[in-house]
Specification:
The chain is mainly beta. The chain contains 1 helix and 36 strands. The strands form 12 sheets. The protein has a 4-stranded mixed beta sheet with strand order 1-7-6-3, with no helix packed on it. It has a 4-stranded mixed beta sheet with strand order 9-16-15-12, with no helix packed on it. The chain has a 4-stranded mixed beta sheet with strand order 18-25-24-21, with no helix packed on it.
Length: 403
Amino acid sequence: MSRCGLLVSLVVGALALIVAPGASALDIADASPPTGVVGTPYSYTFQLSPGSGSAGASWSVSSGALPPGLRLSSNDRSATVYGTPTQPGSFRFYLKVRDAPGPWVCCTEEEFTINVIEGLSIANGGLPSGHVGARYGFQLSTSGGTASSWSVTGGSLPSGLTLDASGAITGMPSQTVSASFTVRASDGSRATTKQFTLYVVEPLVLTAPPPKAIKLGRSFVLTVAAKGGLAPYRWSAISLPAGVNLNPLTGQVGGRPQDLGVLGFTLTATDALGTTQSVAASVQVVDKLSILTTTLRSARNGKRFAAVLKTNGGGTPVSLRLLGPLPKGLRFDAASGELRGVPSLPARKPVVKTKRVEKKHGVRVITKRVRRTPLARAYTLYVVATDTLGQRDSQKLRLTVRP
């Protein structure tokens, strides 16, 4: 190198020493970042050691990674890690600092660790509904730790209920209400809050319709009455007969059944809170009403007699009436349809017979009263049957009472 070049180099070096008299090697001050909590805002600032570096330094993460949800903000002699952690773990990273551009540019990096723990949170998704006048009990719980204290920090519980220090909501609600309130849980170092809505309603009660009878081939509609719970209700059914359907919005059951007999099924209502209640219902499908008894056997005078008048089809109970004069001694039971008793025919007047007998001393007249056997008699009767559907049938019967 020429003497001129050497002189220039010495001058430049001297100027560098004069321009940056306070600059020294870069060094990050000792730091222990605090532990973060998932879901809780986090902030920590790293600093350069006093007298280290110069204005215009830049910070970056050279390797490793910050906890998810956190980022780095460079601000000359300091850098801040901030944000809200989203997952727990131990996160190691190298923090690098580069000095401002110039002949004296230098850099340094150090390893740090930020631990993130699971946040304390109230684990319950919701509260079960309560019923007026019924005992209520529900235990609140936390995840990410165990709460040592619980309290209501906003709103209020329904009248009659309390929240104790263990997180249990107990008591007996006294009125229907939709109560919204905020619950706070704390383990001493961490705390969390959550808003709940608790519904207090009257018990869900279903009233089955009275038994219904219809004639085969006819249609019908039944409605189950529901009260209490929280409307609207959603309806479902089990064992619906063929030809019968359910309206899931109204609870009406109807259709044209295809089979005879008492057809039973079960209806279930579910209210807006998920409470369910079931009730059994039925429909009686009957055939056309008809009287099966068309003849009666003969009765004997003075002898016990019994006959049952039978019907088929119709809605029960079927009522029977027997019209016409009955033989003396017989009675008709409309409930059982039985005709019974001891018939008695009208007596006939005796016949007086006389006889002349010639004797030695004259003629003698002998008079004799002769009893006569009652004559057989036929009675015309009419039986009328009526069922609960208003169907009617009648039959003419003939009853003969013989001697």
